[in-house]
UniProtKB/TrEMBL annotation:
Transmembrane segments: none annotated. Keywords: Aminoacyl-tRNA synthetase, ATP-binding, Ligase, Nucleotide-binding, Protein biosynthesis. GO terms for molecular function: tryptophan-tRNA ligase activity. Gene3D superfamilies: HUPs, Tyrosyl-Transfer RNA Synthetase. It comes from the Bacteria. This is Tryptophan--tRNA ligase. Belongs to the class-I aminoacyl-tRNA synthetase family. Its EC number is 6.1.1.2. The lineage of its organism: Bacteria, Bacillati, Bacillota, Bacilli, Bacillales.
Length: 329
């Protein structure tokens, strides 16, 4: 059985881009019979950017509640908190002892920060903590501890995956074959979901539609999506239209075909937005209720993550014992 593993950073309130770009495809994969999936909340990874206790706690709940509300089945998938697997920081340390600093110098999140510092005339390492610098090593530990996994990630994580492979290989060369090396899985043709201003929807741009915002506010936000100023009767281009891209993601194929036709014939933006709101709300309404319920009953989330953690910890401990032995501890 193929094992799929991926981490979800609790660094922002889940938005429509996260849902369509990451959550929906991952849940589809998890539902396939021949897979065993491990999805974890990467709270240790989030620590390098979130230095506020209650913020980290509430984002962890929001993100976990979103996955559960959207259909993650904790009976089928292993769903846990990274920080509950105490072996991970231990493996991180062992792996960092076989990882060249030069490799980490090339990691893109770190490099981007250094380049920005250079451009803006600051010290090259300004604002860089060791959590950010070591990020790819912890990610390698997440994957290697559970051996031979397929790892679905966005293209932005391609380099991290290559590094996890390199790190696993270095270890295997030094100590004998210990880790299976991961295979990255990139969602094919995955769309960049546009935000309110037409750029990529991202919390960094402040242009998101929070996935579980109340119905009224969803309606308001949809009305704010930018459009050009063509009159209703003018034929409209679907290519690059944020409204059409979003509509297609939430509507049925028949509805999408009808909308494509309406674009060609001419339809007012106000009307498109009403239709878009309806199809979005149809998908989100049920999960929204579940999400709210979970956030009001966070003990249910805790229980679920704790159970998931205890299921994987046994395997983690066994593998960690072998690793300790391999290195002579
Ligand atoms: P943000 O850009 O808001 O900070 P993250 O970087 O935390 O979002 O992304 C979490 C996951 O959601 C990643 O797998 C990322 O590829 C996906 N994702 C985020 N924004 C989009 C988007 N606009 N379109 C498609 N996928 C997205
Ligand atoms: N780096 C991933 C992200 O940017 C999160 C992550 C942490 C991860 N550990 C992982 C993904 C292990 C896949 C496998 O969202």
């Amino acid at each position: 059985m193929k094992r799929i593993i991926t981490g979800i950073k609790p660094t922002g309130t889940p938005h429509v881009g996260n849902y369509l770009g990451a959550i929906k495809p991952a849940l589809k994969l998890a539902a396939e019979e021949e897979h065993q999936s491990m999805y974890f909340i990467a709270d240790l990874h989030a620590l390098n950017s979130i230095h506020n206790r209650s913020k980290l706690k509430s984002l962890t709940y929001e993100v976990a509640a979103a996955w559960l509300a959207l259909g993650l089945d904790p009976e089928r998938s292993l769903f846990y908190r990274q920080s509950d697997i105490k072996e991970l920081p231990e493996l991180h340390w062992i792996l960092s002892s076989v990882t060249g600093k030069g490799l980490m110098n090339r990691a893109h999140a770190y490099k981007a920060q250094v380049e920005q510092n250079n451009r803006e005339g600051r010290d090259r390492d300004d604002g860089v903590n060791m959590g950010l610098f070591n990020y790819p090593i912890l990610m390698a530990a997440d994957i290697l501890l559970f051996n031979g996994s397929e790892v679905p990630v966005g293209k932005d994580n391609r380099q991290h995956l290559e590094m996890a492979k390199d790190i696993g290989e270095s270890f295997n060369r030094l100590y004998g074959s210990t880790f299976d090396l991961p295979t990255p899985v990139f969602a094919e043709g995955s769309e960049i979901i546009p935000g309110l201003d037409g750029r990529k929807m991202s919390k960094s741009y402040g242009n998101t539609i929070p996935l579980f915002t109340e119905e009224k506010s969803l309606h308001k936000l949809v009305k704010r999506i930018v459009t050009d100023s063509l009159p209703p009767e003018a034929p409209k281009d679907r290519e690059g239209s944020p409204l059409f891209t979003l509509f297609r993601e939430f509507a049925t194929p028949i509805e999408t075909e009808q909308m494509a036709h309406a674009f060609q014939k001419g339809i007012g933006y106000g009307e498109i937005k009403e239709e878009l709101f309806l199809v979005m709300n149809r998908v989100i309404a049920g999960p929204r209720v579940k999400y709210r319920h979970l956030l009001e009953n966070t003990d249910e989330i805790d229980k679920c993550l704790k159970d998931g953690g205890s299921k994987v910890r046994k395997e983690a401990a066994e593998h960690m014992d072998r690793i300790r032995e391999r290195v002579g501890l």
